[in-house]
Design brief:
- The protein has 309 residues and is an all-alpha fold.
- It folds into two domains: 140 residues, Alpha Horseshoe (Leucine-rich Repeat Variant), CATH 1.25.10.10; 104 residues, Leucine-rich Repeat Variant (Alpha Horseshoe).
- Helix content is 65%, strand content 0%.
- The chain is elongated.
- The site of tryptophan has 7 residues, from helix 10 and helix 13.
- InterPro entries: ARM-like, ARM-type_fold, CNOT9.
- Belongs to the CNOT9 family.
- It comes from Setaria viridis (Green bristlegrass).
Length: 309
């Protein structure tokens, strides 16, 4: 490999203007500054922007330092009044999103993840997922909040899933899958995928026909949207969700008649040309449904539960 270029390649005599962020205070100093209301906005920005660059993981520092989590929660609840009626400015949205990015560090770190859940911090974000406005500042808020939940489900942990199910995150994800931007739809669908890949999650969503159809309908509706506006990543998560649903006999049976035709008629073939994994998932899903269709099918009791028959 070639050597990397020297860090400063300009003429040695010309002093470069000091870059604004060349002298960032230490992470310890910044975390302390969060408790100073005058410094807080700038500090949230600096910590969030540099969160990957610090010498040490900032998650334990954020979690264990005095007053820090309280300060971050304060940032969050401070904008609740701007959710209804909708008066959130872009600056307010940026500020709270920086606070949310720090919460995402805490949610991602193995040592702080469970304390974060035990303290019920995630539910403070739920009002942001419950909004229906499509303007940029609310969309950014939704996406960043989903990022925190996404960080929690990234590692497969039954305890995390059980917690999220108990807080009724699923209807909130469905809402974003219904009306979010493409990127927040993708994150919300990823979260639902991770939840139903857990056995308790699959059982939860298949427990009543209302729940099953709430998910199936929003998946079908997103597929419709993809015909006009392709998104390979979103399609991948949608197909993985359908495949997982076929692991439940009653859901599999219900999908015989409720699978969108676009998944059967090759609408997405071009799209999936380069994605062998998703193609295999789709194939496996269609196979599972076909098997439920032929032969004995799902046990009658399973059918009863989902189809309400
Ligand atoms: N309390 C509702 C239920 O348990 C929550 C809910 C609403 C829900 N819509 C949903 C759960 C859709 C799963 C899917 O059913």
């Amino acid at each position: 490999m070639a050597n990397p270029p020297p860090p400063h390649s300009g003429p040695p005599s010309a002093p470069a203007p000091a870059a604004k962020d060349e002298k960032i205070p230490t992470e310890e100093q910044l975390v302390l500054d969060l408790c100073n209301s005058e410094l807080r906005e700038e500090t949230l920005y600096l910590l969030s922007k540099n969160r990957e660059k610090f010498q040490q993981d900032i998650a334990p520092l954020l979690w264990h330092s005095f007053g820090t989590m309280a300060a971050l929660l304060q940032e969050i609840v401070a904008i609740y009044p701007s959710l209804s009626p909708a008066t959130l400015s872009q600056a307010q949205s940026n500020r709270v999103c920086n606070a949310l990015a720090l919460l995402q560090c805490v949610a991602s770190h193995p040592d702080t993840r469970m304390p974060f859940i035990t303290a019920e911090i995630p539910v403070y974000l739920y009002p942001f997922l419950n909004t229906t406005y499509r303007t940029r500042q609310y969309e950014y808020l939704r996406l960043t909040s989903l990022g925190v939940i996404g960080a929690l489900v990234k590692v497969d942990d039954h305890e995390v899933i059980a917690y999220l199910l108990s807080t009724e995150i699923i209807p909130l994800c469905l809402r974003t899958m219904d009306l979010g931007s493409e990127i927040s739809k993708t994150v919300a669908t990823f979260i639902v995928q991770k939840i139903i890949l857990d056995d308790a999650g699959l059982k939860y969503i298949c427990a009543t026909r209302e729940r099953f159809f709430a998910l199936a309908n929003v998946l079908a509706q997103m597929l419709e949207g993809l015909v006009e506006q392709p998104s390979p990543r979103l399609l991948k998560h949608i197909i993985r969700c359908y495949l997982r649903l076929t692991d439940n006999p009653s859901a599999c049976h219900a999908l015989r008649t409720h699978l969108p035709t676009v998944l059967r008629d090759g609408t997405f073939n071009d799209f999936l040309e380069k994605d062998l994994t998703t193609r295999l998932w789709l194939h496996q899903m269609l196979h599972n449904i076909a098997m439920a269709n032929s032969g004995g099918g799902a046990p009658h009791t399973g059918l009863n539960r989902i189809m309400g028959m």
